[in-house]
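Format notes (please read before filing issues)

Several people have asked whether sequences and structure tokens are stored in separate files. They are not. Every record keeps both together, in the order shown below: the sequence lines, then the token lines. Line labels are part of the format and must not be stripped during preprocessing.
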Amino acid sequence: MKSEFRNWSDIRVFLAVIREGSTLAASRKLGVAQPTVARRIDALEHETGLILFERDTRGFKPTREARSLIPLAESIEETTLRFATKSRDLAKPR
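Then the structure lines:
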């Protein structure tokens, strides 16, 4: 595993696949092409050195490792949303 995580948007893709159950459904939710979602999951697995999903004809099933990362990913998502809200609030004219 590399010491520096390089693509924070991959966490958003990871959570979308977890929540939607497939790369196709996640791509629709995110408004991007399905191959993009699949590539981002592959990149995240390479970056972390983990297999995050079991792939089969019914979709993507999170592995034990993926399930253990969900709370951290959700925390990052929540923090990112708070950051966006705060920065918008600060940018409003007074």
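For reference, the curators noted about this record: The mean pLDDT is 93. The helical segments are 9-20, 23-30, 34-48, 64-91.
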